[in-house]
Design goal:
Layout lengths: L14 H29 L2 H8 L2 H19 L5 H19 L2 H4 L2 H24 L5 H24 L2 H32 L3 H30 L4
């Protein structure tokens, strides 16, 4: 899921850019808040947790993947309200899908992983926003690394190697930190290429989704790597 509106990075500035970037970050942070609320609500209900631990989690994962691909591929042709609705639905579904972490990991581990992820995300966001270096090459390399992680993870479903899973978690943190910087630069460049307000609003939704995915993956992999189990 990359760049539905162009690819070459362009550096732009001004108060309009700042408002645009704030709208992207606000959407991302609200989505994280929605994910957290839904996750806590689901975690407080043992029946829901048991349901999520069963085969429904796989179905939910397929639904979420479908939303991401549909939103990414169809963003040009859908209106802003639909794009926003799909984004909020996706965020809520992620909250339900990750709710079992509250039964697996201690609250302290979850909080520590979240704030550590926030530090990593914030640092890479700042770098991606301020650097004059074109991060397209790095982004492409990270995307290749992401596909390698996905393929290896599927293989490890059969191998069930805990050492390999730890290594994949560490590598995933590096990949999604790199993608954070790349995505920030790409989102910033979209502003200069968006011809109208409607397109800019849709770009903001897609940008928020990219950053949301980066943060969630950094957080979950930190939790797998460093989290203390109950």
């Amino acid at each position: 899921m990359k760049n539905a509106f162009g690819s070459s990075p362009i550096i732009a500035g001004g108060s309009g850019l700042q408002r645009y970037m704030m709208s992207v970050y606000n959407k991302m942070f609200m989505a994280l808040g929605l994910t957290g609320i839904v996750s806590l609500v689901c975690a407080s209900n043992p029946d829901v947790l048991q349901f999520m631990a069963g085969g429904f989690s796989f179905i939910l994962m397929l639904v979420m993947l479908g939303i991401v691909f549909y939103l990414s591929a169809g963003i040009r042709n859908m209106d802003v309200d639909r794009a926003n609705a799909l984004f909020w639905i996706y965020s809520a579904l992620v909250g339900a899908s990750i709710s079992p972490i509250f039964a697996v990991y201690t609250g302290e581990s979850i909080a520590t992983s979240f704030f550590t992820a926030a530090v990593f995300f914030g640092g890479m966001s700042l770098y991606g926003y301020t650097t004059k270096k074109d991060l397209t090459g790095m982004g492409s390399f990270m995307i290749v690394g992401l596909f390698a992680i996905i393929i290896t993870s599927i293989v490890n479903l059969f191998l069930k190697s805990s050492a390999l899973q730890m290594g994949l978690s560490a590598l995933s943190i590096v990949v999604f930190c790199g993608l954070t910087a790349y995505d920030i630069q790409k989102i910033r460049s979209f502003y200069a290429r968006s011809a109208d307000e409607e397109t800019l609003k849709k770009v903001a939704v897609l940008g928020a989704l990219n950053l949301y995915l980066d943060f969630i993956n950094i957080f979950l992999n930190l939790l797998r790597l460093l989290g203390k189990r109950r």
